[in-house]
Amino acid sequence: MNHSIYSADRTTHLKIVVVALVAGILVAGFSISTRTTSDEGFTQTARVMKAGKPVVVTSSGSSLVR
Q1: From CA 58, how far away is CA 39, in angstroms rounded?
Q2: How far apart are CA 60 and CA 22, in angstroms?
Q3: Which residues are CB-contacts of 12 (< 8 A; sequence separation ≥ 6)?
Q4: What is the pLDDT of residues 19-63, one digit of tens each?
Q5: What is the dihedral of CA 11, 14, 16, 21, to 10 degrees?
Q6: What is the pLDDT of residue 24?
Q7: Residue ranges per domain, the chain?
Q8: Which of 7, 50, 63, 65 makes a 20 to 30 Å CA pair with 43?
Q9: For the residues of 1-63, what is the DSSP string, one character each?
Q10: Could you give the angle at the alpha carbon of 42 between the alpha carbons of 49 and 34, nearest 5°?
Q11: Are the CB atoms for 12 and 1 separated by under 8 Å?
């Protein structure tokens, strides 16, 4: 067995790829299986915002002190 990735032969690289694929499949399978399937309490409702009366914003250079 080669302990360096630079001097590894083809079978060692193949083993690394196979182990990485198996580990990725296991992680994906575990994450899919632990996901909750019930949506109780997590439902979202659509909220509609309606426009009100138009507002006019003006600005003048003078300041008003009361």
Answers
A1: 48
A2: 70
A3: 1, 2
A4: 999 999 999 999 888 876 655 666 677 788 888 888 777 776 666
A5: -160
A6: 96
A7: 9-36
A8: 50
A9: --S-SSS--HHHHHHHHHHHHHHHHHHHHHHHHTS----TT------PPPP-S-------S--
A10: 145
A11: yes
Q: Which tokens in the block code for residue 32?
A: 């899919």
The token duo for 56 is 């006019």
- In contact, 28 and 22? CB cutoff 8 Å: no
Q: Which two tokens stand for residue 10?
A: 């083809």
pLDDT, position 35: 74
